[in-house]
Amino acid sequence: MSEHSILKNMYLIGVFKLQKYEIFINPKTLNQLNKDIWMDEHVQAVLKIGNNQYSIGLAYRGNVIRKKKKKSFNIIFQKPFTVNGAHEVHLNAEYNDISLSRNKLSFDFFDTIGVISPNSKHVLLYINGFCKGIYLEIESFDQFLLQKRNLPMGPIIYATNYYANFSLLSPKKKLKTDLLEGYTLKYGDEDDLSHLEDLITKTNTVKNEEFEEEITKVLNVDQYLTWLAGVVCTQNFDGFIHNYALYRNSETNTFEITPWDYDGTWGRDLHGKRLDHDFVPITGYNTLTGRLLHVPNFKKKYCEILSYILESQFTVETQIGIIEELFETLKPHLQMDPYIKRKGNSLDSEKDVIVNFIEKRNSYLKQQLIKLQDDKVYG
Fold it and tell me: Per UniProt, which keywords does this protein have (predicted)?
């Protein structure tokens, strides 16, 4: 039996049916939400999933997406306080992503290579009985995620803008007045931010001969290098100075890093425009990465990690089945999304875009890997 026949049979038996999420909200409250799309205060609503109903706080989320017709939502569970171990989830519209899938493909890819990543799944959203289309439910990276994964508790800090570049200088090359500029504490105490200041200070001030030893006291270097390989493979241009969260493991007292907001990946930018496969260099962009890769042992480790991923995970052979199964899940529901004017064959075309990107990006990175190992990448 062909792969296509297998996928078709899986759909017929219901494997590819999206779960239905129904939100019920007072029309006056919904009008209030729509009149002030920048309001971050949550309003009262009810979420029904199957036979279960939950009292929730509902708000719009994101920046650019709030101006679009199809908006993204943030949900806080109120009664009960947690659902399936989560207190907060996000429903992303994925409006600029023709595949509706680049975020999910990225999170799943990072999880596969060993980087903490939020779980995600597509759902079919209704509000007051009207279908609002396909959304991607994304787990919040918070203390509840740590509990679900049986990870040690520790502070979580979000990189919320481009100032989160691990540097003493702003993106405009001006001296920062606050090392914590660009960061928001998600979980923990204000005192926990001093550990992030320590990381940034060490990154920028420790002498070369002391850096290898000192940085390992505050950063899980192997985990960071694995994350770096993931960003480089998926080619998230913003991922080095934005679109990440830091978690300080209380057992090791070192920071670990996780991806966030990865729609600008797999050959497209965050607006959905095509990007050349060599747009992002193998060495990334931020100050911390630059210093790490100038340490021979760290550079060697990064090359080993990236080489393994390029041979085993970031390949057409590994990813194509994942992509096809995900797209077959979405195809039957595209016509139900009032904001989508395309048909199922648009996903077939987008599959070709992603597969072509993986093939070319893999080849490019393998070539750059040889140069990096020979130190030619630092001209």
Answer: Capsid protein, Virion
Residues 338 and 360 in one domain: yes
Domain that holds residue 182: 152-373
Question: pLDDT digit string (tens) for 321-364?
Answer: 999 999 999 999 999 999 988 766 889 999 999 999 999 999 99
Distance CA 120, CA 103 (A): 9
The three-state secondary structure class of 102 is helix
* Backbone CA torsion sign across 109, 147, 162, 73: positive
- pTM equals 0.92
Tokens matching residue 52: 């279960």
Task: State residue 282 phi and psi, 5-degree precision.
Answer: -65, -20
Phi, psi of 281 (to 5 degrees): -70, 165
Q: How many CB atoms lie within 10 A of CB 295?
A: 17
Residues sharing a CB contact under 8 Å with residue 302, sequence separation 6 or more, in sequence order: 225, 228, 229, 292, 293
Strand partners, 134: 124
The mean per-residue pLDDT over the stretch 286-292 comes to 96
The band of 376, judged by pLDDT with boundaries at 50, 70 and 90, is low
Total number of domains in the chain: 2
Question: Any idea what the CATH number is for the domain that residue 201 is in?
Answer: 1.10.1070
* Arithmetic mean of pLDDT, 176-194: 95
Residue 108 sits at the vertex; the CA angle it makes with 78 and 183, to the nearest 5 degrees, is: 60
User: Do 121 and 108 meet the contact criterion of CB atoms below 8 Å apart?
Assistant: no
Cβ–Cβ under 8 Å, residues 228 and 284: yes
